[in-house]
Design a protein that fits this description.
By secondary structure, the protein is of the alpha/beta class. It has one domain: Trna Endonuclease, Chain: A, domain 1 (3-Layer(aba) Sandwich). A six-stranded mixed sheet has the order 1-2-3-4-5-6, with helices on both faces. The radius of gyration is 16 Å and the shape is globular. The mean pLDDT is 79.
């Protein structure tokens, strides 16, 4: 499975969850949104007086209803996904994707998420090392980022085992976790 395939499969599962009405507060789901389009460039340059930074494609955007209505009625969060295959594990660093998700904070998202997805062939002790190191980095700098480190158990069903922030399974739990975390973050107004 590639990163693109994982994003597509995750998108389909989240859409199915939305259509089943399991998460009444989930309003919209988008994937592979390029923030470097001409229309967005016009908006950006009006406010920031310059060109957009490069590489501004967001892997996934989730829009939730904001129960607190702190600023508006929507809670919009983005997810940066990094996929680690068995051959990537020696080439990619534990902090892969951190710079990109931090850059997304300037676009006004209410929530940020970095999701490291590991292929089934990768040993769990390697995943635990990546998860502990990245989780520690995020918490020690008090970064407003929700970090997931998961291993794919079944590619067809997209069953996963989560190592960080907790041992949970199932896409529905990831959706709930994202919404709860982002609501808490927004009420704290950290960014």
């Amino acid at each position: 499975m590639s990163e693109r395939n994982f994003i597509n499969k995750l998108y389909e599962l989240i859409l199915k969850e939305k259509e089943l009405g399991k998460h009444g507060w989930l309003r919209s789901v988008y994937k592979n949104k390029n923030l470097s389009t001409k229309d967005f460039q016009d908006i950006w340059s009006e406010w920031w007086k310059g060109n957009l930074p490069p590489r501004t494609e967001v892997d996934m955007i989730l829009v939730f209803e904001d129960p607190m209505e702190a600023l508006d009625k929507a809670l919009i969060g983005c997810i940066e996904i990094e996929y680690f295959s068995i051959k990537d594990i020696t080439k990619k660093n534990f902090y892969e994707g951190l710079q990109q998700v931090l850059a997304f904070s300037i676009f006004g998202f209410d929530g940020l998420c970095l999701w490291h997805m590991f292929s089934p062939e990768i040993e769990e002790n390697v995943i635990v090392n990546y998860a502990n190191t990245m989780g520690g980095l995020i918490s020690s700098f008090n970064l407003p980022i929700l970090y997931f480190a998961t291993k794919i158990l079944d590619e067809k069903e997209l069953r996963m085992k989560c190592f960080e922030p907790s041992q949970i399974e199932g896409v529905e739990y990831f959706i709930d976790w994202l919404n709860s975390y982002w609501v808490d973050e927004k009420t704290e107004t950290r960014f």
